[in-house]
Specification:
With 184 residues, the protein is mainly alpha-helical. The chain has one domain: YgfB uncharacterised protein family PF03695 (Four Helix Bundle (Hemerythrin (Met), subunit A)), CATH 1.20.120.740. Helix content is 60%, strand content 5%. The protein has 8 helices and 2 strands. Strands 1-2 form a two-stranded antiparallel sheet. β1 and β2 form a beta hairpin. InterPro entries: YgfB-like (IPR011978), YgfB-like_sf (IPR036255). It comes from Pseudomonas versuta. This is YecA family protein.
């Protein structure tokens, strides 16, 4: 099995499979999947694929087109989760949450809602224990962004404040990973 990070074509493949087999209860895009996997590798307790794989699909396995399609999805998923684990454990600058980009009133805006929603899904699947106050606040930083409705940005959005909030997510995720790793 390959160990290098996924490339654009790999992410497109994952995205296509997620959209093809997803529903309202499943992970629907690679941003959400990236957040989900980041939480799993940051968990104070290791999470088995038998627990996290069905959670991608809302508890139901997809009706795969073929065994090869299922195998491809699993292989790409495992490669990505392993890459995230390696990047975070090494403190690598290569780790960057997979956020979406859009434009709002002529300004570039980074959207993190789906990544954060995926992260919270991963926290739930990993069944994180209550966290100490500092780590609980870091998790709240992520949760606050997951609660925003970024599908339609308000006309009067304070872009600078929004981007400032998004900028807090990566350091929070790194610190939560470091804490989780210290608890294993």
């Amino acid at each position: 099995m390959q160990t290098q990070p996924l490339n654009a074509a790999d992410f497109e493949c994952l995205e296509g499979i997620l959209l093809k087999h997803g529903d309202d209860n499943s992970v629907l895009n690679t941003c959400e999947l990236d957040g989900f996997f980041t939480a799993l590798v940051s968990s104070p307790a290791q999470v088995d694929i038998a627990d996290w794989f069905p959670a991608i699909w809302g508890g139901q396995n997809p009706n795969w087109e073929s065994p090869d399609e299922a195998k491809q999805f699993i292989e790409l998923s495992v490669r990505h989760i392993n890459t995230l684990a390696r990047q975070l454990a090494e403190g690598s600058t290569a780790f960057a949450p997979r956020f979406e980009e859009t434009e709002h009133n002529g300004q570039a805006v980074t959207l993190a809602e789906e990544w954060c929603f995926g992260y919270l899904r991963g926290v739930a699947v990993a069944n994180w224990s209550p966290l100490p106050a500092v780590q609980a606040q870091l998790l709240q930083t992520i949760a606050d962004c997951a609660e925003q409705d970024n599908f339609e940005l308000p006309e009067d959005l304070d872009v600078a404040a929004h981007q400032s909030q998004v900028a807090e997510i990566e350091p929070a995720a790194r610190a939560l990973h470091d804490f989780g790793l210290s608890q294993r």
